[in-house]
């Protein structure tokens, strides 16, 4: 038979009482670690979203304006279906300057007509009359009026489907507002991500 003295009982009770604060401290530390891990995930997510939004706007702007001018090209958005399926609506077309005399049958010419830019295929080059007979790929007949040499801008060399919508949006006030909102959202997400990351490190 084992008899526990009062001193031993007091020591034993004291040791059990001390374990409760230790367990509470461990639980608190674990909870803090979980919260910090969540903050880091949110921080990375916000930073990625912000970077993607800003990069997308920058890439579209470069594709539509900066890159063509750097390469000596002009860019035009396809707004009608007269050249489908070769040039779908919403495509961004790049054109190089060219002498009208060098345009061959089958080339796609860019020219002015009635204060509008037209992008149609050359059906015939009338050198003596200094005119081009043109037709849209989706149209049944040739254009009613020939394109004058003096109105020819160039010849298409490439296109990017879908990017033309971005250019068309920039031409309208609602489009500019939406673009500005996207830029602000991208910047806001980046700032929030940085702030949360700083908070998680403290």
TrEMBL record:
It is found in: Membrane. Keywords: Hydrolase, Membrane, Transmembrane, Transmembrane helix. One of its GO terms (molecular function) is serine-type endopeptidase activity. The chain crosses the membrane at residues 41-66, 178-200. InterPro entries: LexA/Signal_pep-like_sf (IPR036286), Peptidase_S26 (IPR019533), Peptidase_S26B (IPR001733). Its EC number is 3.4.21.89. One of its GO terms (cellular component) is membrane. It is an enzyme of class 3 (hydrolase). It comes from the Bacteria. One of its GO terms (biological process) is signal peptide processing. PANTHER family: SIGNAL PEPTIDASE COMPLEX CATALYTIC SUBUNIT SEC11. This is Signal peptidase I. It comes from Adlercreutzia equolifaciens.
